Amino acid sequence: MTFAPALRSELIKIRTLRSLLWGLAAVLLATTAFSALAGLDDSGEEFDPLFSTFFGVSFGQIAAITFGAQAVSAEFQGGALRLSLAAVPDRVRWFAAKAVAVGSPALVIGLVSGGVSLAVGKAVLGSRASTLTWGEELRGAVGCGVYLALMALFAAGIAAVLRSGVATLSILIPFLLIVSFVVGGASGTVADFLPDKAGQVVLHENWDGALGPWTGLGVTALWAAAALTAGAWSMRRRDA
Amino acid sequence: MTSIDVQDLTKEYGTKRAVDHLTFSVLPGRVTGFLGPNGAGKSTTMRLVLGLDRPTSGTATVGGRAYATLDEPLRHVGALLDAQAAHGSRTARDHLRALAASNRIPERRVDEVLEQSGLGSVARRRVKTYSLGMRQRLGIAAALLGDPPVVLLDEPSNGLDPEGIIWIRELLRELAREGRTVLVSSHLMNETASFADHLVVLGRGRLLADMPMREFIHARVQPRVRVRTTDGAALGDLLARHGIEAVEGEGGRWTAFDARVEDIGRLTSAAHLPILELASEEATLEQAYLDLTGVETEFAATPTTPQTQEA
Asked: Does A5 sit within 8 Å of B86, measured CB to CB?
C-alpha cells in the first residue's frame, strides 16, 4: 500500500471536522488582527518594523498548536485510533500521513496569514515601515507561514506522545505565554534555542542572538521533528 | 480459504494474563459465536487478530497472514470493535469516506453500506445526534465497507432496537451463506443462539469450548419432557416404574429427564392416563453456557442456577 491513500484519508478527516477548520481560520484571524493592532502602538523603544508587522504570530501560534493537537487527539477518543490503524496498519506510515495532513493546511494558512499580515501591517505602519526591503518582507511572510506550520507539527507530535489534546495544550500554552515571555527577554542565552524564540527570529528586521532567520527556523524544525519522532515512536511501540 | 487462525496466543497486561495460550480457528461459511463472561479475553483476542495489540507470545493470522502485512486490509477483514469510534462532529458519510479513501475503496461503496445498514436517510447527520443503536449500525457499515471475506464484530447487538436485532441476525446469516468467515462476540445467549453455527467459548483467557453449537448444547444439557395429566400421582408411579427420572413441579406438572415425548406419550396412553400437556423442553444455549462457565465466571456474585425456559 502506498502513502497517497493514507494521506487522502487523513486530509478528509481534517476537512470534515468543523472544529479543525475553525482552528485554521483562527490562525489567520489572530495573526492578522493582532499584527494590525501592534502597528498602532508606536511607544516601544526597540521598535522593529518587521516584527511589528508579524506581531500577531504570537497569538496565531496558539491557534496553530490547538489545531495540531486537536487533529491528533481526535484519534484518541472512543477507539477512533483502532479503526484508523485497522485501515492503515503500518503505524509509522499512518502517523506520517497524519503529520502531512496537519502540516500542509497549516503551512497554507500560515503563508496566507503572513501575506495578509504584511499587507495590513505595512498599511498601518505607513512611513515607519519604510526601512523594510522587499527581501525582508518576503522572508517575514514566508517565515511566518513556515513557523506556524512547524508549531502545529510540534503540537501534533506532543499530542501523539501524551495521547491527549488537553494535556498537550495545558503544557504548550503556558510554555508559550509564560516561560518564553519571562526567559525570552534574556537574549544570547539558551532561551534563544526554545522552539518559539528560535523560529521568530525570521520575523525580525534586526536580530542579535546566536541564530539567524533561517537557522532559527531550522532549530524550530528540529523541535518539531523531535516531537514527531517521539510521537511516531510512541505510536509504534504502544498497543492501540 | 480465509480463516482466522489463532495459535498459542498469549497477551499479558502487566501481571494479568488477558489471553492465555489460546488456539482455535474460525472457518468460513458459518457464523462463529465468540462467548465468554466480561473480561474473558474476547475483545483482546479480536484486537490481537487485527494487529492493534501486540501479543506477548503466539500468533494470530487471517488467511495465513498477519493482519499488519495485508495490503489494503479493509478489503480482507472488516471489524466492529467500538461503536464510539466515529467522531461525534463528523457526519456518518464523511466518517466512512475517510475510511474508504485509506484503502482505495470507491465512494459509491460508502452509500451502499449506509443503505444496507439502514442509515441512508441520516447519512449526512452528525454522529453525535445518533443513538447507540445507530452508531452500532454505522460501525457495522464500516466493517462491511471493503466487502471483506472475513468479518469480526464485537458485541454488535449492543444498543440495537428489536428491529435492529433481527436485522443483524439476518445479516450475519447472510454473510455466512455468502461463504464469509464471521466471528461475533456476545454475552447475550439467546441472541447468539439465534445466529451462531459454531461456538468458541473463553473463560479467563483460556479456551473452554470450540465446537458446533448444537453439539455444545446437547453435550451439556439433557433433553427434558414436561408432562401433565389429570392424575399426577399415577403419572409419577408410571414414570418411576419405567425407570424414568422425574420430579414433580407445581400443579401436578412433572418434568422427566433424559426422555423423549414419543416414549412418554406411549406410556401414558397405554396406562389410560389423559394427557393435559406434553412438551419437550429444548435445551438452551444459556443453560449449556452457564453449566460450562459456572465454575469459571470470574465476576459471578452468586452461584448461578440455570433457568429453565418455557419451550
From this structure: no
pLDDT at B302: 47
ipTM of the assembly?
Answer: 0.91
Residues in chain A closer than 8 A to B142 (CB atoms):
83
Q: Are residues B173 and B254 in the same domain?
A: no
> In which residue are the cell numbers 489471553 written?
B19
Q: Å from B14 to nearest chain A CA?
A: 13
Q: Which residues of A190-225 are buried (b: 16+ CB within 10 A; e: fewer)?
A: ebbbbbbbbbbbbbbbebebbbebeebbebbbebbe
CA distance B174 to chain A (A): 24
- Stretches where chain B sits below pLDDT 70 are 1, 294-311
pLDDT score, position B223: 79
Same domain, B246 and B202: no
Task: State the Cα–Cα distance between residues B8 and A225, nearest whole angstrom.
Answer: 40
- CATH code for the domain in which residue B21 is found: 3.40.50.300
B54, B87, B97 member nearest A80 (Cβ): B87
Q: Best interface-test mutation with B: which of A15, A83, A90 has the largest number of B CBs within 10 A?
A: A83
Percent of chain B, pLDDT > 70?
94
Residue B308 lies in a domain: no
C-alpha angle with apex B275: B271 to B276, nearest 5 degrees?
Answer: 160
> What percent helix, strand, coil does chain B show, rounded to 5?
40, 25, 35
Instruction: Give the structural domain span for B261.
Output: 222-281
- Work out the minimum CA distance from B84 to partner chain A, whole angstroms: 5
Closest CA in chain B for residue A7: B102
Beta strands across the sheet bearing B224-229: B246-248, B253-257, B224-229, B275-281
pLDDT digit string (tens) for A150-194? 999 999 999 999 999 999 999 999 888 777 667 656 666 777 888
Q: Report the residue from A18, A79, A87 with minimal CB separation from B103.
A: A87
3-state class (DSSP) for residue B224? strand
Asked if residue B258 and residue B172 are part of one domain, the reply reads: no
With respect to residue B63, please indicate whether it lies within any of the assigned structural domains.
Answer: yes
Same domain, B232 and B207: no
* Contacts with B14 from chain A: Cβ below 8 Å: none
Q: Do B226 and B136 reside in the same domain of the chain? A: no
CATH number for the domain harbouring residue B259:
3.30.70.100
Asked if residue B243 and residue B181 are part of one domain, the reply reads no
Query: Is B58 within a domain?
Result: yes
CA atoms within 13 A on the CB side of B274: 3
Distance CA A138, CA A150 (A): 18
**Which tens digits make up the pLDDT trace of B249-283?**
877 788 888 888 888 889 888 988 888 989 888 77
Residues 6+ apart with CB under 8 A from B163: none
B90 within a domain of the structure (yes/no): yes
Q: Is A79 on the interface with B (CB under 8 A)?
A: yes
